[in-house]
Write a structure and sequence with these properties.
Radius of gyration: 39 Å
Largest sheet: 8 strands, mixed
Strand content: 5-15%
Helix content: 40-55%
Shape: elongated
Number of helices: 35
């Protein structure tokens, strides 16, 4: 006897729906087949437009069928249906029984017809008739309730398989795909995301052998060679680890990989047993998907958790298999990131060159963007190493010390703060190297503080606002810095209580990125443009320094003294002015800023605002990220800047004093009479790390105090930070003049782009030895991607310069181009590009642009680029338009050699692409020389 076809619930429902009209008159359905074991025998189903209760009985004899029918007729409610699956032939059943059945006969299951009907198709792909497994799967897998998506026309095999895969594997889950079943993507990216769902891989493993094999084959064809490896892992219960295993497969990329490594990786894949090439394809797919997730992780905490779950599992598997050391070159593992970070810090401790080389590797790691705080530690280590390599600097005077601290040493303090805080990842391998490098920098900074303190003692004895000894003193800031700005518009003076030079460096960078332009007075002939810095009052505390700053004269007092002094200073200069302190800044319901403050900003008067966020943090410690300050970290600052921009106000960000951070190793020296504060005392017996200060600008202690210059000394209870001492970080008062528009700049003031504000050692060393190419042979190959040269204009010479062979010793021959920019503009490709640009800039100007960007690491602000161009004797007022013109010269065939980035706040040059487009001959000549050497 032949085996009966298996009939499942979905088949029964499909047949009932197909014969819905007949079932209005009949309640018995006979089906040729055997009801699948485990399927529900009683259920409700939509039959036509009615919901009917269905009972299924599997009977192998006539008597069994008769008994089932009589029982149903006696007990069932009106409208209920009886379905009997059987192998009994029709001729064995009497007419009286068959007369109650639909069509008076046993129905045969035609899967192709059922599939056609359930999809609403006009027909099936002819190949599907030969694939019983597919037809059966489509009948069995039909989703309850919504059914299969309707198809217009013929149902193709690929469409059927795609729909089946989405349903069987659950690819339409919102965590995987936001689309409906018919639109859900079926590719490696989606399937890798599916592998991370709790039940996804298990759903595939529970399918029948034939269906799994066929789906794996089809998915390999449409989704790539990585998918069969993924599904093979799902079959053996390793689907959830598939992405982690894929990352470890990177160990096999190296053809010279240790055989033990290859064996260990193969062992991790277990019975899935993919070949080495298949593992390589799988690894590529995993890394591609992970890169996309990493890009999305910045804006989604859920995606970030998903990424780290894969990374942590990969490291667990690598550790258990002994593969961690062999994967230090991986671009994706957390362990490899930590190893590369350690290499940067250790390399920087040896030399800047070693640190820079290792840093280039680290910044190429796929996790660099996701672990930016840890990359920052590496960058600061290399920067500090560059500063230390320059040799010990010296503080030669108070004026030079304050100037150099704002321009150089405050940036070193910024790096030291990051190194002291350590690696946020807590890697013990990095901690000791960071501490060693920090101590080297700390020794050099202490030497500078000691030198500065000695000069400060001599300077303070006679320094006044009228005789400042070459310094900008704090009480002169309003008159010297702020008053000239009133010619362009009423300024907004924002006092950031306690802002150090290290903090100012960070805020200045961010302000420029947000469209503000910092300006400084034009330096003397041959001088360098640097950020403005003043000398605080003595001691460097709020009571003396802030009152003196805002009153324009040496004084001390609280908020009332500051407010009246500020108004009086500007009244003498025929200006209205108002000062706002903490309690009067915030607005009421619905207003971020107080109405009085907003009205003042809209007026023609000078406005001052005191923000205490930084100074408050010295009491209890900075919240959140401990080593960085941003505009958003300082309450009200970003909103005040936005208001100033809308009213076209120049802005002056100025401190009243700086601060030092508590490093946990301070020495407490109590004052004899209990006076003073955290960093000064009213005594005259200076010990180690202290200095006696006396003079007209010393407003406490009767004109004489002892102040600490060593950052570890304090005279009060421990806090997060201190001020009042004689160190450079406390005495130096950074002053940032920011303009929303360059038209507001006073006469003889110039832009200070962030590239010039930062010291040279802060930026990466990018200058490479100039390689002058050998003379090209006359039969040289033309450059790659060179655009077709238009017909020469009649005004051009008959022979191009390159066509004229000059005697080698001709005295009038121009010198060979040496810089990158000179070589580009001297080349044939550049000459051809000029034909397409009307009124192209001079070659030396374009060369200057290229060389300036290359020296800056490829990126500069527009203001810095304008300054570089001005060195050629050509001033560009519309720098944006000029860059657009140079883009047309350099962006051959649309390749993005030059362009704006960072929302237009920076210009970027792709140096590698520039060489490829314009200096292809050099590259070929270099490679040929290597081949012959």
């Amino acid at each position: 006897m032949a085996l009966l076809p298996q009939v499942g619930r979905r088949t029964v429902e499909a047949l009932l729906d197909r014969h819905a009209k007949k079932l209005a008159e009949h309640s018995l359905v006979l089906i040729h087949g055997q009801y699948a074991a485990g399927s529900a025998t009683t259920f409700t189903s939509e039959v036509g437009e009615r919901t009917r209760r269905v009972t299924v009985r599997d009977e192998s004899s006539v008597l069994g069928i008769l008994a089932a029918w009589h029982s149903h007729r006696d007990e069932a409610a009106p409208g209920d249906l009886l379905v009997v699956t059987t192998g009994v032939e029709d001729d064995q059943l009497g007419w009286d029984l068959r007369g109650h059945a639909v069509h008076r006969r046993t129905l045969t299951v035609e899967k192709a017809e059922i599939v056609t009907q359930r999809f609403g198709a006009t027909g099936l792909d002819v190949r599907m008739y030969r694939e019983d497994w597919l037809l059966q799967a489509l009948v069995d897998a039909e989703p309850a309730g919504r059914g299969w998506p309707r198809t217009a026309g013929v149902l193709t095999r690929d469409a059927a398989l795609r729909t089946l895969v989405v349903e069987r594997l659950g690819l339409d889950h919102p965590d995987i795909s936001p689309h409906a079943t018919a639109e859900a993507a079926v590719d490696a990216d989606v399937l890798l995301a599916w592998s991370r769902t709790p039940a996804g891989p298990r759903r595939f493993a529970e399918l029948g052998d034939a269906e799994r094999a066929e789906l794996k084959k089809w998915l390999g064809e449409v989704a790539g060679p990585a998918v069969p490896v993924l599904l093979a892992l799902a079959e053996i219960g390793r689907g959830h680890d598939a992405m982690a295993l894929g990352l470890l497969g990177a160990a096999l990329r190296d053809p010279a990989a240790d055989p033990d490594v290859a064996l260990a990786v193969g062992g991790l894949f277990g019975k899935a047993g993919p070949r080495r090439g298949e593992i390589g394809a799988f690894t590529d797919a995993v890394e591609g998907t992970l890169l996309r997730w990493i890009g999305e992780a910045a804006g989604s905490l859920d995606v970030r958790h998903r990424v780290f779950a894969v990374l942590q599992r990969a490291d667990e598997l690598a550790r258990d298999a002994g593969l961690t050391a062999g994967l230090h070159g991986s671009r994706f593992l957390l362990s490899s990131f930590a190893a590369q970070l350690a290499a940067v810090v250790e390399g920087a401790d040896r030399s800047p060159a070693h640190g820079e080389a290792a840093l280039a590797e680290l910044t190429g790691h796929a996790l660099a963007g996701l672990l930016a705080d840890r990359v920052r530690v590496a960058e600061m280590a290399v920067r500090l190493a560059r500063w230390l390599r320059q040799g010990p600097p010296a503080a030669t005077s108070v004026a030079a010390g304050v100037r150099d601290h704002a321009a150089e040493w405050g940036w070193a303090d910024r790096a030291l703060a990051v190194l002291w805080a350590g690696d946020p990842g807590g890697d013990p391998a990095v901690a000791q190297s960071l501490r060693d490098l920090y101590e080297h920098g700390r020794v050099q900074r202490e030497r500078l503080d000691e030198q500065f303190a000695r000069h400060l003692a001599g300077w303070a004895a006679n320094a006044t606002a009228q005789q400042p000894g070459g310094c900008l003193v704090l009480e002169n800031v309003l008159d010297t810095v702020v008053r000239p700005l009133t010619a362009g518009g009423p300024p907004l003076v924002i006092v950031l209580d306690g802002m150090s030079s290290a903090v100012a460096a960070q805020l200045g960078e961010e302000a420029e990125r947000e469209g503000w332009q910092e300006i400084v007075p034009r330096p003397d002939e041959g001088g360098r443009r640097t950020r403005l810095a003043a000398v605080s009052m003595l001691p460097s505390i709020t009571r003396t320094s802030r009152a003196s700053l805002l009153s324009g004269t040496a004084t001390q007092g609280g908020q009332s003294t500051e407010a009246s002094g500020f108004a009086a200073f500007w009244k003498k200069r025929r200006k209205d002015a108002v000062l706002f302190h903490k309690a009067s800044i915030g607005g009421d319901a619905g207003r971020f800023l107080a109405q009085e403050l907003t009205s003042a900003l809209a007026s023609d008067g000078v406005v001052g605002v005191v923000l205490n966020t930084i100074d408050d943090a010295l009491d209890s410690g900075q919240q959140g990220q401990r080593t960085t300050w941003s505009l958003g970290d300082i309450t009200y600052l970003r909103e005040l800047l936005a208001a100033a921009r809308s009213y076209a106000r120049p802005v002056v960000l100025v401190a009243d004093h700086g601060h030092v951070i508590d490093r946990g190793r301070g020495r407490v020296i109590p004052a004899e009479d209990g006076g003073g504060s955290a960093r000064w005392r009213p005594d005259t017996d200076a010990g180690d790390g202290e200095v006696v200060l006396s003079g007209p600008r010393v407003l406490e202690g009767g004109g004489t105090i002892t102040a600490a210059w060593h950052e570890d000394i304090r005279y009060a209870a421990r806090r997060a930070g201190y001020h009042g001492g004689a160190s450079l970080a406390e005495i130096t008062v950074p002053v940032l003049v920011l303009l929303p528009s360059k038209e507001l700049a006073p006469r003889d003031w110039e832009p200070l782009p962030r590239e010039q504000a930062a010291p040279s050692w802060w930026k990466a060393t990018t200058t490479a030895p100039v390689d002058v190419p050998e003379p090209r042979p006359e039969s040289g190959t033309p450059p790659a991607r060179r655009p077709a040269k238009p017909t020469p204009r009649q005004s051009e010479e008959l022979f191009a310069t390159d066509d004229v062979v000059m005697p080698e010793a001709a005295p009038e021959a121009p010198p060979a181009p040496t810089t990158l920019g000179e070589r580009v503009v001297a080349g044939e490709v550049y000459e051809a590009q000029k034909e397409y640009v009307r009124k192209a800039p001079e070659g030396k100007v374009v060369a200057a642009v290229i060389d300036a960007l290359a020296a800056a690491g490829g990126t500069m602000s527009p203001a810095a680029l304008a300054a570089a161009i001005s060195a050629t004797g050509r001033v560009r007022r519309n720098i944006e338009g000029f860059v657009a013109t140079v883009q047309r010269l350099l962006n051959v065939e649309g390749y993005p050699v030059l362009g704006f980035v960072d929302a237009g706040h920076a210009v970027k040059l792709d140096v590698a692409l520039l060489r490829d487009q314009f200096l292809a001959d050099e590259a070929r000549a270099g490679s040929s020389r290597k081949g012959t050497s």
